Amino acid sequence: MRSDPPKPSEKGQWRVYLLLWLLINTTIWSAAILYLKKAKPTYISEWALILPGTGPGVSVNLPEIGQASSSSNSAFGGASSDPRANYQFIATSDAVLGRAATQMNLSIEDFGKPRVKLLDNTTIMTFQVTGATPEQAQQKSKIMYQALVQRLSELRVEELGRRDEGVQATMKAAQSKLHQAQKRLSAYKVSSGLSFQGQVENLSVNVEQLRRQRSEMLAKRQQTGTRLAQLATSLGITPDQAAKAFVLQADQQFQQNLKDYSESSASLVVLLSKWGENHPNVVKEQARQQAAQIAIAQRSTELLKQAVAPQLLEFLQLGSDQGAGRSSLFRDLITTQAEYEGFNAEVESLEQQIKQLDNRLSGLAQGQSTLENLKRDVQTAEAVFASTLARIDLSKSDIFTAYPLTQLVAEPSLPESPSTPKKSLVYLGAGLGSMLSGAALTLLAMRKRLLKLYQNRKSQSASSSEQTAL
Question: What pLDDT, in 10s, does the model give residues 13-68?
Fold first, then answer.
């Protein structure tokens, strides 16, 4: 079946759709060309930051006190925490953008928000900042980076301030405990007499040395006492009597009386050998002897506060050779007696010192354990205080715990071409608009004709069905 040729009314209808399509295309392309001419170009400067994954660790050894360490954990150690997201929020906050806009003499709206992208599986952040000119875009990027760095520094200082407030209380508590422990130790040293480490050991060594000296003195005293007893037995005189003999020997008057007594005794022996006891010369010599004996007794009483025993008179004959020998033995006897008394006094002094030191050692030994406990308390308090102070100092030096260090890995670029408008995209859009408008008008123009063909086919089908039924 052949289709009917288009009627004149249908041709006019096609002309209307063609004119409408030309009008639509003229509008589309005019708008595209006008946009390209009137739209201000926008340039994008790109730059990137990197956040290091780990920080340095610091360890400080305090001799005889303890150890303090500080380490900067990885900023990406948490399974669900990414500091780049925090930095993204900070970079696009009004605090950073306002500071950067002020330096550029712009408002925050005119400065615009940058586009921040976090690269997966890296620690890199990329930034895109727009500007009216390439130079402005680059300058805005640099100023924004400086504003971000300043803001991060301010946040680090604030974070350290809050952290310092928290640790000051801990440090003061540790310092107070140290002072109390030192005060208790000092007070106990004063009250107990324990002043230094090893005092009990030194005192014990001193006691042992004194005991050894006492043993030596006892041996010497025993040896000297044996010698003294032998001399006294040999001489038949005591050391006290020998000392009295030397006192009398040193007195000239007594020696003269002794001499007179000796001479008269010798003369009396000669006279008695010749004459009897009643002979005048014998009687005279006996009177002389008695007078000398009385003088000796009187003088000895004055010197020794007692009379001379008769047995001493024999030993007071010191003028002859035999007397000189006895004088030497007397001296030995007196010297030995003095040595014996010296050793005896030394032994008594050592025994007294040993007794005193034993009593002191007993008291110090009982307080030694208490002293050691107090010293351990002081050492523990010193270790806690020193380590706390070291941790505070180390934590102050680690300012990148909450806000990791950033590094500019890509300098702000100077764009060579504008990012908007893109002529190729504008032309492509206009072309697609032309094609779509042409297709729409064509379908609209063919809609009536297609509808008429459908109705004709439907009526023909209905006629065929009636003839078949007849």
Answer: 677 777 888 888 888 888 877 776 776 778 889 999 998 755 555 555 555 555 55
Which residue is listed with tokens 């990885």?
74
Residue 402 near residue 156 (C-beta atoms within 8 A): yes
Residues 6 or more apart whose CB falls under 8 angstroms from that of 357 comprise 203, 206, 207, 210
First to last CA, the chain: 25
Burial class (CB in 10 A: 0-12, 13-18, 19+), 380: middle
- Of residues 421, 428, 424, 420, the one with CA closest to residue 28: 428
For residue 366, what pLDDT band results from cuts at 50, 70 and 90? low
**What distance separates the 2 farthest-apart alpha carbons in the chain?**
230
Cis peptide bond N-terminal to 41, omega within 30: no
Q: By three-state DSSP, how is residue 183 classified?
A: helix
For the segment 132-154, what is each residue's pLDDT rounded down to a tens digit?
Answer: 888 988 999 999 999 999 999 98
Yes or no: say if 378 and 178 are a contact pair by the CB < 8 Å rule.
yes
